[in-house]
Amino acid sequence: MAVFQGTFHSFALSKRTNVDVLLPTDAEPWMRRDNEHYNRPMKTLYLLHGYSDCSKDWLLKTDIAQIADRYNLAVVMPNGDNSFYLDRPATGYAYCRFVGEELPDFMERTFGLSRKKEDVFIGGASMGGFGAEHTALMYPEQFCKALLFSPAVLIDQLAEITEDGEGTGIANYAYYLTTFGDLSRAKGSDADPAYLIKKLKQEGKDWIPFYLTVGRDDFLIQNVHRLRDFLTEEHYPFVYQEEDGNHDWYYWNRHLEEAIRWMLDCGEQK
């Protein structure tokens, strides 16, 4: 597995930013032999980290390198800071545009990675799970499927966060105000997955199938249950896995290969 770690100038972010890239182009002959995944073009997964993490966390804390080798999968892991991968008015804060447009363009120019919808996927954990969902809904023409590991869908809680309160225990009011804008108006905005899903339906655009998973001891489980129930009511295409586990890399790593097999349509979960 070839690993590239570098920086490049992002116009969307108005700064140089880090990105880690896995390319299975140096896979051993025995790995390629009789492996159906090497009889097709290489696929690409954009994999987003969570709050307080960075582009290297998926590499350091999961088996993504070995899995990518096994399935002929390029993996692009950008640095999303603590942005929730949203676009906001401030200069240098176009994180959704960065992931949905600029980064794939750069990867195509630099590594020749495919931009065909059927070859491109997106996923993430926690804040990155929200970012993967949001980016897929904002750019449905770009991505084939999305993998959501314990996505931090906080939209129903934002209006309850007050300036004189304690925030969420993770971040304070000022952070959420900067990230989501007017918290009383976040629901029904482009930061609201339900709003985006209904908007795509009204516009007759494709829905991106989701793989959604959460551990039973995850502090976000009620948030994920609300998302699951909404997707069910809307007849949105998704598969759901809930097992013993917490909001941590142990749980996400345990489900990573299963999610990728579903993503590539090579397992029972379809």
TrEMBL record:
Question: Which N-terminal residues, if any, form the signal peptide?
Answer: none
Q: Name one Pfam family in it.
A: Esterase
Alphabetical UniProt keywords: Hydrolase
Please indicate if the UniProt record lists Hydrolase as a keyword. Answer: yes
UniProt GO MF annotations: acyltransferase activity, transferring groups other than amino-acyl groups; hydrolase activity
Q: Which domain of life is it from?
A: Bacteria
Gene3D superfamilies attached to this UniProt entry: alpha/beta hydrolase
Report the protein name in the record.
Alpha/beta hydrolase family protein
Q: What species is given as this protein's source? A: Caproicibacterium argilliputei
